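Help needed: design a sequence for this.
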């Protein structure tokens, strides 16, 4: 289980990190002032009449939040609840204050993660630069019974009923320093104030844990399905435009696949030229990348379907706090 008492890991602190420390001090002061302005009512907080569950983290980079959001959408939908999801829509080029994601919305408009959530769930997904406006939209249009915020732990203009923080147990909190000297958006002590901490990839000693479980490969064009050993001992291109592409490649290699690695930056806006490789090997990608490639996809392209499996304790704790 992650040790929350650790503050700074000196083994991960470089000279560059030390040179950036003065900027981290400025970041800390500004973020604290902003926090107290919301807490004291100097800045306005929008409180919805609908329960809001925030699934966020205190670090930058991927920590497995979006698959957990999708799992929550399915959980509440099975209870007969109308589910709403709000997101900043990182990478989206929308210009309006709020955008309701529909079947005709392009991932380039709303961002890849909202597009993925909308495609894999029946949730009403709304993106906004200010998540509080997205919450307000869902509330005023009477579209939902519960709202989940994909990220947004630090968006204090958005009132919330439950805070869930996701901690990646592999990278933990990096060097333990605040931005830009480290990956932290807030101090590690913030974890003690949230309602639930999920140890993503946590071991048996984690009180609440989540794991990504690979299910099958699905062809982007035909919808054909292959089992996890369907590409075993086959040379394939591995394409990943996520925060930690090496993990996706390691998953493929763990399935016995001969992977030609093709990493891209997180939220990369894919075009057909990006996937125009020299050889005709199968192209394997993540579901998040897949939604951006459907308009130009070929039968050469497959994505790995995964589910976030959460410990039973998580759902019990969550229900007790709603």
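Sure. Designed sequence:
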């Amino acid at each position: 289980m992650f040790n929350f008492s650790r503050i700074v890991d000196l083994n991960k602190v470089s000279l560059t990190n030390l040179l950036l420390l003065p900027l981290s001090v400025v970041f800390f002061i500004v973020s604290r002032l902003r926090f107290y302005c919301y807490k004291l009512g100097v800045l306005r907080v929008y409180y919805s009449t609908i329960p809001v569950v925030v699934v966020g983290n205190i670090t930058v980079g991927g920590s497995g939040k979006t698959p957990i959001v999708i799992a929550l959408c399915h959980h509440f939908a099975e209870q007969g609840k109308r589910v709403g999801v709000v997101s900043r829509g990182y990478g989206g080029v929308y210009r309006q204050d709020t955008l309701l994601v529909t079947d005709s919305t392009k991932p380039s408009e709303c961002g890849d993660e909202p597009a993925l959530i909308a495609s894999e769930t029946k949730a009403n997904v709304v993106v906004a630069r200010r998540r509080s406006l997205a919450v307000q939209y869902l509330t005023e249009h009477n579209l939902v019974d519960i709202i989940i915020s994909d990220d947004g732990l630090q968006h204090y203009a958005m009132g919330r009923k439950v805070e869930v923080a996701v901690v990646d147990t592999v990278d933990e909190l990096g060097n333990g320093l605040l931005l830009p000297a480290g990956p932290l958006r807030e101090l590690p002590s913030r974890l003690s104030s949230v309602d639930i901490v999920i140890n993503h990839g946590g071991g048996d000693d984690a009180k609440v844990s989540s794991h990504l479980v690979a299910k099958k490969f699905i062809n982007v064009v035909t919808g054909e399905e292959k089992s996890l050993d369907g590409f075993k001992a086959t040379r394939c291109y591995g394409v990943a435009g996520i925060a930690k592409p090496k993990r996706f490649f390691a998953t493929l290699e763990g399935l016995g696949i001969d992977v030609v690695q093709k990493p891209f930056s997180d939220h990369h806006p894919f075009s057909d030229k990006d996937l125009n490789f020299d050889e005709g090997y199968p192209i394997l990608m993540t579901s998040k990348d897949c939604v951006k490639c459907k308009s130009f996809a070929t039968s050469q392209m497959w994505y790995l379907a995964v589910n976030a499996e959460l410990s039973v304790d998580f759902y019990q704790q969550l229900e007790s706090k709603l």
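The first helix runs from residue 15 to 19.
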